Amino acid sequence: MLNAEDNGLWKALGDPTRRALLDHLRTGPRTTGALCTEFEMSRFGVMKHLKQLEDAGLVLVRRQGRQRFNHLNAVPIERIAQRWMGRLTRDSAQRLLALEAHLDQAQERDTMSNQPSFSFHIEQAITLNAPPERVWRAITHEIASWWGFHIGPNDSEITLEPRVGGQFIERWGDGEGELYATVTFMRTGKKITLEGGMGLGGPGVSKFSYALEPSGEGTQLQFNHYCHGAANADVEASFREGWAALLGDNLPAWVHDGKVAEPG
Asked: Are the beta carbons of 79 and 57 closer than 8 angstroms?
């Protein structure tokens, strides 16, 4: 049976204008003014649609000075996908989507001789039914249990050292591995920030952070990821899909039920 939160999500997604707004936010945060120019309706009408998306948790609003920036929050959509799609069905669908994206990108490469650099910002927010100290332990000391993604062999060791200068690293053995990022800021139990290549496979750098705040008997986790580097058409989409799966599925499954993520 659908709960009130589910009903609000489906209602928000049921309107074509609101879906179009989410499409515009897929490439990164946009100001309310910039979004208003994309639609043949009043500013009030656009803002009303944005408010419904915000109420459904699909849009996060952050103010910078006098400007209001709207960020896509993909976590609720990922939860819907997890509810109605089994792992095998989801994997099959993802392979087909990956093939479609690969063919589209190949066509784009044939028509483009030069590609610009890319820069993007991903922001996600989730609420976990566990106290902040439990969530903190999960995102630091227990990251191997829910991370799931491996650049090397599926049995490689993934660790995060929760200290300034600590490494977030995947080790394959015999001194081999990949350094994802290094901790640049930490306030124990509240916030940790890391910077590094994060498996970009080319020139570029990522800066991402987890910030924790008590929320009733649970924890509000605020996630931000800034990335800049050499051009690669699928980098942002890949990160958005990856973080949505990690924060919307893997982390809650580990924190709530002790379910270890399958390597992949």
From this structure: no
Q: Does 228 lie in the same domain as 157? A: yes
Residues 88-99: pLDDT tens digits?
Answer: 455 555 555 565
- Name the DSSP letter for residue 208: E
List all residues 6 or more positions away from 204 whose beta carbon is below 8 Å from its beta carbon. 197, 227, 228, 229, 230, 235
| 112 in a structural domain | no
Note down the domain range covering 189: 117-257
- Which ranges constitute the DSSP H helices of 56-140? 75-84, 87-111, 132-139
Residue 239: give its domain's CATH number: 3.30.530.20
Instruction: Tell me if 246 sits within 8 A of 240, measured CB to CB.
Output: no
**Residue 96 within a domain:** no
Q: How many other C-beta atoms can be found within 10 angstroms of the C-beta atom of residue 196? A: 20
Structure-block tokens of residue 71: 């960020």
Contact 263, 240 (CB under 8 A): no
Please tell me whether residues 61 and 163 are part of one structural domain.
no
This prediction has a pTM of 0.62
pLDDT of residue 111: 45
